[in-house]
Design a protein that fits this description.
Layout lengths: L14 E11 L6 E8 L7 H18 L5 H9 L11 H15 L8 H10 L6 H4 L4 H14 L7 H20 L5 H20 L37
Antiparallel strand pairs: 1-2
């Protein structure tokens, strides 16, 4: 599969979304799944096949990174061919970059088990949740980061509250920007919110960029342009 802008990974045709789930056969693994999208030529790629190469890259880079800025770490992974413009791999990437930078900034983690737990949890969040669940996977991933860092379970007290507050904060900021979805915009927003949250509530200060400038906008047919705070027209980016 190749990295095609905002389109089918097999043929490059635009995707089409359905309000109600249908059953599709994955064109890669040939297993059947309920889903809400295929391409205009009828191709469907399941979440597992879509994110497989990306998960391997996320694991490899995060395990070896000494980066204390989770945005910089995430951005470097996004530039690799295995990470597509949109897709469920971002539901892992956000939390993985945060956990890695958190550890490198002095946060206590059972590493690398914490990263593997993030991957397991992130893989359970299906693609399209931002529109179909009203709960963007990037925000959920940030909540998973806090849950893992704070050791939260459904029976926890303060840690339970912190994880939910993190997700709520990220969702509020993502939702305030409006749609359509953009996995890059939503991921930047969630991670920036988590950097602030970590310092305020977990006592670990990660590094943060002075500004985030997106170079992925040509791959997104639904880019918000000037409405996006990371678009080059709103920053000092020079091509």
């Amino acid at each position: 599969m190749s990295r095609t802008p905002n389109a089918c990974l097999l043929c490059g045709a635009p995707l089409r979304y359905y309000e109600r789930e249908r059953e599709f056969e994955c064109a890669v693994c040939h297993k059947h799944f309920p889903a809400n999208a295929d391409c205009e030529n009828g191709h469907f790629v399941c979440d597992g096949c879509h994110e497989a190469q990306g998960v391997a890259v996320i694991r490899e880079v995060c395990l070896s990174s000494c980066e204390r800025d989770p945005v910089a770490l995430m951005y470097s992974i996004m530039e690799l061919p295995a990470i597509y413009m949109h897709g469920p791999e971002h539901h892992i990437l956000v939390g993985a970059a945060l956990l890695s930078a958190y550890r490198n900034s002095g946060g206590a983690l059972d590493w690398p088990d914490a990263l593997e737990e993030m991957i397991r949890r992130g893989q359970k969040v299906p693609g399209g949740t931002c529109g179909f669940w009203g709960c963007c996977g990037a925000a959920v991933s940030a909540g998973m980061f806090v849950s893992i860092a704070a050791g939260a379970t459904p029976l926890s007290g303060e840690a339970w509250g912190l994880a939910n507050r993190m997700t709520a904060l990220a969702l509020d900021r993502i939702g305030s920007l409006g749609g359509p979805r953009c996995c890059k915009r939503d991921s930047f927003t969630a991670v920036l919110a988590a950097i602030e949250f970590s310092e305020q509530h977990l006592g670990v200060r990660m590094e943060a960029p002075e500004q985030v400038t997106c170079s992925f906008f040509p791959e997104n047919a639904q880019c918000l342009g000037r409405r996006c705070p990371y678009h080059p027209r709103n920053t000092k980016y020079v091509q």
